[in-house]
User: Which sequence fits this backbone?
């Protein structure tokens, strides 16, 4: 599939996240770099992921001022929590999309102050690429929280935030979505494994080999396309 307009990729990512249980009221944000320097696409404050469509997205600047977009349901205000994304974009020119949610399993690990363990082949894309922030700096609506979260992420593409949630930062929207979906699945698996002896880390050499195969653009993009077809079938919007 091709998604020439980034709003098309973002909309389908929002649907995928809703289908995967990432919806958490006002807590989730999905952003991507816009066409102008320092600009970003985001949803209006209060719009649920499954309500997104291609006309919903707002183009904002790094002061959170709206540059383009009509929004949805009369809402044309960006979520102020999007501010901390700006710090990641400033620090990481390789990052073109950021996804932050409070999904159930990642939130459970975050509440228990337990980092994600790469204990299964399906978690290999996250091997040596998932950071952990052990303290909660408070609501991410100010520059301080952005500095802390950005520093915790460092040069990695995912971070589990204690007492908070998770964040993935992708070179593409598809990569951010791919990592987010598998991060939540593996958090769920880690919690389930606690009942039968706990999650045991997989061999590092084999984890790297699996990661290097599964993190190719080809694998991530065709996986994303399959998720798009699934969610479009459910919504009755498949082309």
Assistant:
């Amino acid at each position: 599939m091709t998604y020439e307009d980034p709003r098309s990729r973002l909309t389908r990512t929002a649907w995928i996240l809703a289908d995967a249980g990432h919806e958490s009221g006002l807590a989730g944000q999905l952003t991507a770099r816009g066409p102008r320097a320092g600009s970003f696409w985001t949803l209006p404050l209060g719009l649920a992921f499954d309500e997104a469509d291609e006309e919903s997205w707002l183009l904002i600047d790094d002061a959170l001022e709206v540059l383009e977009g009509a929004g949805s349901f009369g809402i044309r205000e960006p979520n102020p929590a999007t501010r901390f994304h700006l710090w990641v974009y400033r620090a990481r020119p390789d990052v073109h999309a950021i996804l932050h949610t409070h999904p159930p399993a990642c939130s459970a690990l975050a509440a228990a102050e337990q980092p994600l363990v790469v204990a299964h082949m399906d978690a290999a894309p996250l091997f040596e690429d998932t950071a952990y922030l052990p303290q909660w700096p408070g609501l991410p609506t100010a520059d301080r929280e952005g500095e802390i979260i950005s520093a915790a992420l460092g040069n990695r593409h995912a971070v589990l935030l204690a007492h908070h949630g998770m964040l993935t930062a992708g070179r593409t929207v598809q990569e951010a979505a791919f990592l987010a979906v598998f991060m939540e699945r593996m958090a769920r698996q880690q919690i389930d494994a606690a009942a039968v002896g706990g999650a045991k880390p997989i061999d590092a050499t084999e984890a790297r080999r699996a990661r290097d195969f599964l993190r190719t653009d080809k694998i991530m993009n065709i996986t994303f396309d399959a998720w798009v077809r699934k969610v479009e079938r459910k919504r009755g919007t498949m082309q």
Notes: The first strand starts at residue 29 and ends at 33. Strands lie at 29-33, 40-42, 58-60, 66-68, 97-101, 130-133, 158-161, 165-170.
